[in-house]
Design a protein that fits this description.
The protein has helices at about 1-35, 40-45, 50-55, 65-85, 95-145. Helix content is about 80%, strand content about 0%. With about 150 residues, the chain is mainly alpha-helical.
């Protein structure tokens, strides 16, 4: 049973690798055609799904690194993502919860910004009022000195 499960996993992994390789080749081919500016009618009618024959003819690229190297790379990447989350203070993993949190924070920010704008307007009004009072005071004092 264990051998059969491992064989199935290996076949599934090989299928996925072939499919990814096929998609990469298709993407490169489309980019090359766009660069050559030769978009044929064929490329428009091509289907994105790969046929079984195409997949069987593709052999995935063999790499020199073993699976432990790639596992380590994945773990390091996950740790980097976690560090970045902590640095940005992102505690939510669920996108819907994070979106709700973002929308609430955005609404709070907009409210605070409106308050800042109203405070700035109030400050400008107070400064203008102070200037007017000073000029009126000077006129008043000048009037008193002329009358005395």
């Amino acid at each position: 049973v264990d051998v059969q499960e491992r064989t199935e996993k290996a076949n599934e992994a090989m299928f996925k690798a072939r499919k990814v390789t096929y998609q990469i080749k298709q993407t490169r081919e489309k980019k090359r055609k766009k660069l050559e500016k030769r978009d044929d009618d064929q490329s428009d009618n091509e289907e994105n799904e790969s046929s079984q024959e195409d997949l069987e003819s593709i052999e995935p690229i063999q790499v020199n690194k073993n699976s432990d190297y790639w596992k380590g790379k994945i773990v390091r990447g996950e740790k980097d993502i976690e560090k970045e989350r902590e640095r940005r203070k992102i505690s939510e993993v669920d996108p819907e919860v994070a979106l709700d949190k973002y929308q609430r924070a955005k609404a709070d920010l907009e409210t605070k910004m409106e308050q800042v704008v109203s405070i700035e307007e109030n400050e400008n009004n107070l400064v203008n009022d102070l200037k007017d009072r000073k000029t009126r005071w000077k006129h008043f004092r000048a009037h008193i000195s002329l009358m005395a």
